[in-house]
Amino acid sequence: MKTAVVTGASSGIGLVVARELARAGWRVIAQGRDPGRTAAALAAIKAAVPAAQIELIGADLSAMANVAAFADAVATRTSRLDLLVNNAGFSPARRVETADGLEQCFAVNHLAPFLLTNRLVPLLKAAAPGAQIINTASIAHTFIRDMKWDDLQQTKRFSLNDAYTQSKLANILHVRELARRLQPHGIRANAVHPGLVQTNFDSHGGLIVKLMYVFGKPFSLTPEQGADTILWLAQDGAPGVTGEYFAKRAIAKTTPAAQSEAGAQRLWTISEALLAEILVP
């Protein structure tokens, strides 16, 4: 039986990914932030797939200590991991600083999956070759020219749009560097744009995010449609491909910043340094 970890599984795309992997016979260890929604999601999955081998663990991924604790919880439950889906996401309504002193969108959308992935790499290696990492990214990454390298936490000047769009760019840069580092170990890493799925994202965020959902509403997808490319990759779509950005089951065009190997390595180094300041080794 293959084992998957899925974050952001209490609703939307993550719930569908967790449910359909369980339906396909996978063992699923999933994460949700809100206790009520997490319990409801587990009940819904069990109702749809009575034989589901699934557990939902509550964790607020805005705090790096919680991310590390969630990784530890996974490690106590399995000795190998075939798939990690970093799907949990956040679109800010205002600038919020986490207990770690991080801008919340950067913390949840980038640094949390960065830390979780690094902590789970030994389990992914145990399932290699063939293990996979999938980051849920977004076309929103095309609405920012590059990372705000001189002010990633936006302490000098905060923009709702920049907070979200640079975090989605970071998701793609993350898989670029993961692919470079992990391909020799038989582990693939790719990013996915799920499409404009109508979720509660349209009630938060800056003008760009709101406009995406308002004008995209007539063409919006169901969570099932949004989860399609993730599930396709999870179940041996695009064999051998790593370090890419997918949409509609195909490699999609992206920006020069998202293709930058130097940018991917720079973000990795910065992320490691931030975590070294926050967490006790």
Total helical segments: 9
What top-tier CATH class fits best?
A: Alpha Beta
CATH architecture: 3-Layer(aba) Sandwich
- The multimeric state of the shown protein is single chain
First and last CA, distance: 33 Å
Per DSSP, what share of the residues sits in E-state strands of 2 or more residues?
5-15%
Mean pLDDT: 93
Tally the beta strands. Answer: 8
CATH topology: Rossmann fold
Please write the string of helix (H) and strand (E) elements.
EHEHEHEHEHEHHHEEH
Reported for the largest beta sheet, the result is: 8 strands, mixed
Structural class: alpha/beta
Q: Numbering strands along the chain, what is their spatial order in the largest sheet?
A: 3-2-1-4-5-6-7-8
Compute the CA-based radius of gyration: 17 Å
Number of domains: 1
Helix content: 40-55%
Low-confidence stretches: none
CATH superfamily: NAD(P)-binding Rossmann-like Domain
Dominant shape:
globular
Protein described:
- The protein has 281 residues and is an alpha/beta fold.
- It has one domain (3-278): Rossmann fold, CATH 3.40.50.720.
- The protein has 9 helices and 8 strands.
- It is globular and about 50 Å long.
Spell out the key features of this protein.
globular; alpha/beta; 281 residues; 45% helix; Rossmann fold
Question: What is this entry, summarized?
Answer:
With 281 residues, this protein is α/β, with parallel strands linked by helices. The protein is 45% helix and 13% strand.
Task: Summarize the topology.
Blueprint: E1 3-6, H1 12-23, E2 27-32, H2 35-48, E3 53-58, H3 64-77, E4 83-86, H4 104-127, E5 131-136, H5 160-182, E6 187-192, H6 207-216, H7 223-226, H8 228-234, E7 245-247, E8 250-251, H9 261-278
Parallel strand pairs: 1-2, 1-4, 2-3, 4-5, 5-6, 6-7
Antiparallel strand pairs: 7-8
Helix pairs in contact: 1-2, 3-4, 4-5, 5-9
